[in-house]
Automatic annotation (TrEMBL):
It comes from the Eukaryota. InterPro entries: Thioredoxin-like_sf. This is Thioredoxin domain-containing protein. Residues 129-171 are annotated as: Disordered. Signal peptide: none annotated. Residues 129-141, 150-161 have a biased composition (Basic and acidic residues). CDD domains: TRX_superfamily.
Length: 171
């Protein structure tokens, strides 16, 4: 099937769970697929909808996948279990040969992972700045206390020093 014959038809189904990390990782690829091919992918949340779960179980014959994300092409009856590569997802959508189980490579972080890494790094930087500012404030506080102590000693001047006794002054 060419992308032109698919345009506007919705025969591609995605089954997902709201808190599913792998499903979140696939969202940018699904958006890219929709933009490139012009075919909407109908989404069915299965963790909180019994009707959607029953439909997933009907299409996932014998529970071969048994989880989400699960992608089903109604025209070809082709399916993919789990997160996958964009190339594999595109082949599935076009009715071309594809792998049912083909996880994305580990060295290519998903869009969701990159976003999480960004926020984790941002949080780390913020914590480092807070630590630096706390240390600077503590240092300034100690310097201020030290400066006050030095002024007090200077104001006391000779009064703080012991006076020479008459025996010492004769020497």
């Amino acid at each position: 099937m060419s992308p032109k014959t698919l345009k506007g038809k919705s025969h591609l189904l995605e089954f997902y769970g709201i808190e599913c990390d792998h499903c979140v990782d696939m969202e940018p690829l699904m958006d890219q697929l929709h933009k490139e091919l012009g075919v909407p992918v109908r989404r069915f949340e299965v963790w909180y909808s019994e009707d959607n779960l029953r439909l997933l179980q009907k299409l996932d014959k014998g529970g071969a996948c048994g989880g989400v994300p699960f992608f089903y092409n109604k025209k070809t009856r082709g399916w993919i279990c789990g997160a996958t590569t964009y190339a594999n997802l595109r082949n599935w959508a076009l009715g071309k040969p594809h792998q049912r189980f083909l996880p994305p490579p580990k060295d290519e972080p998903s869009q969701g992972s990159r976003i999480m890494n960004f926020f984790e790094n941002l949080q780390k930087q913020a914590m480092e700045r807070i630590q630096q500012r706390t240390e600077q404030a503590e240092k300034q506080k100690q310097q201020a206390v030290g400066a006050k102590g030095g002024k007090a000693d200077a104001q006391r001047g000779d009064k703080a020093r012991p006076k020479a006794t008459s025996a010492q002054s004769k020497k």
